[in-house]
Known about the structure:
8-stranded mixed beta sheet; alpha/beta; 286 residues; globular
Amino acid sequence: MALVSTQFIKRIYTNVLSKSAETSVRTLPILLGPLRGSRICVDSSLSFGEILGIHEIRTLYFLKNILIELKKQRPHLCVADLGANMGLFSLFFSKIAGENSSHIDAFEPNPRTFEVLWRNVLLNHRQNIECHRIAFSDLPGKIDFLMTENNHTSHILESGSEDQPGSGQRVSVDATTLDSFYREKGITKAPDFIKVDIEGAASLALKSCDWCLETKRPWLFIESHTPEEDAAIGKLALKHKYVAFDTVQKRWIKDLSATFPNPDGVSGRPLLIPEEVQSSLQAILK
């Protein structure tokens, strides 16, 4: 019965997706998971899992427990979502952290994807989410950005890099750093939790966040895509006295100076927390 139901739902959603390519923007409700009841704009770039609510579902439930624990220590949460994409994580943070007691900064540099993010925030009446069309790097300014057909693979282009035929459209976007952005806002607006999924650019963005980490001691969840990002994460943790938990293998990372393929090194999706609060998380991080 469950299989038949899933196939039936998928057929309906696939039909809607095919029609959305021919007509104006369509919306559908998320049926499962922590975002159940939210509505999202749909187009052909979305996966069935994203629409149904099962995409990243294990990660979302893991982060739900983390945010609940963090909220016990910091009742009013400020969250920075670097690489917000279409806004699923930002909507999740808004819901779990509490719309009346949290503020979410959703950052997405891709002009096309940013429009979807903005629509999804408005569609769900999330007044505690503020959308910013900006990228993160090691220095503020203008940078080249590659918009690909799949919004999950759009990324910052390194200086001097050549476009590959059919790879996507190169555009110039505004960039900032974590410290530059939040110094201007002040310490009360600095993030308590930072999610980073910026397709390889974390190796740049993590170079300029010393003020944020030293003044607010945020917790960080980082999606690493490259050995350079792995190394930058480990270096950051050692410099600021953080510990790291491997959320894929469900174990504490033993060697922050090592990266993949070292089984004790940094890779995948580490959660970084200040050393001084590690003991309080032992019960849920196991």
